[in-house]
Amino acid sequence: MTDQELTPGGALDFSQASPARTYNALLKGRTAYAADREAADKVLAMAPDAQLVARENFRFAGRAAAWAVAEFGIGQAADIGVGVLDADIELPSVEDCVRQVDPEARVVAFDNDPVVLAHARSGRSYGRVLHGDVTDLDTVFGNPELGDALDLSAPLLVVLAAVLHFVAEPAAVMAELGRRLAPGSVVVLSHATTTDTETRRVAGMTKAYDNASSHIRFRPEEEIVGLVDGWDLVDPPGLCDVAEWGLPEPHDGQVGEHVRVVGLVAVRPDHHGQGRKR
């Protein structure tokens, strides 16, 4: 939860768009308010395919997470910045996808949007959702409600789907994850990119979030793949459009024409620089 999302009296402030609720609006979900829908409309005005790309990003997160659990035998996952998944949005969550591979897997989701947390407490959201801010990982891994649900001495799957482009210093987040996670841990990451996206569209979509609780930052592909320096990038497929990320064969989803979101999967190596490679 951020101070920007609360009024001085502590009530929720719905006059300001939030990334989670704006994303929900792009997915045509119900848990969005006027400011969120206005921001989503501005995004769509600049990139009419943004709704398609949002759905492909959601599918990528679940598909890549399920693959990582199957490939590396990881039995626990943290979905950070989970957002809202309304019941009428017919998309499988990360938890759904992971549990299809390993029904006994422990999956905990985190978000700092108070509406996301309220949605989860009402029973309208999947699984267990706790307060946590990706820019302060103590609020995630040190959350007192977490208990022993996640074991940081063992490999952990971390999903950061469409999260780091709302962070001013994503390299610091990835460095901190690298310090905290056990060797063999896996990160699933997606991020909006300036590469092969028209400058005017990037500017327009960036402006759509001017009054939101967090601002979006498009980054070039080289900077995005650089976020996993020190990790073992799973390549193929490497960094690619979220719609195309798939193993063992390339996925055949629809790639956006006006806005690009790219994704990758990377493995945390041991202290000698050796990760578990494919």
Reported for the largest beta sheet, the result is: 8 strands, mixed
The termini sit apart by 38 Å
- CATH H-level superfamily: Vaccinia Virus protein VP39
Report the total helices. 9
Which class best fits the helix and strand makeup?
alpha/beta
CATH topology: Rossmann fold
Average pLDDT figure = 91
CATH class: Alpha Beta
What series of H and E elements makes up the topology?
Answer: HHHEHEHEHEHEHHEEE
Named at the architecture level, the CATH assignment is 3-Layer(aba) Sandwich
Residues in helices, as a percent range: 25-40%
Give the DSSP E fraction (strand runs of 2 or more residues).
5-15%
What number of structural domains do the residues give? 1
Counted beta strands: 8
The gyration radius over C-alpha positions equals 17 Å
How would you describe the shape? globular
Assembly state: single chain
Given as residue ranges, the uncertain stretches (5+ residues, pLDDT < 50) are 1-10, 272-278
Notable characteristics:
single chain, 278 residues, Rossmann fold, 8 strands, globular, disordered C terminus
Question: How would you describe the overall organization of this protein?
Answer:
The protein is an alpha/beta fold. Helices cover 33% and strands 14% of the residues. The protein contains nine helices and eight strands. The protein has helices spanning 19-26, 34-46, 50-72, 94-101, 114-121, 138-141, 170-180, 199-208, 221-226; strands spanning 76-80, 106-111, 128-131, 157-160, 186-193, 232-233, 240-241, 260-267. Strands 1, 2, 3, 4, 5, 6, 7 and 8 form an eight-stranded mixed beta sheet that branches. Strand 2 (106-111), helix 5 and strand 3 (128-131) form a beta-alpha-beta unit. The longest helix is centred in the N-terminal third of the chain and has 23 residues, at 50-72.
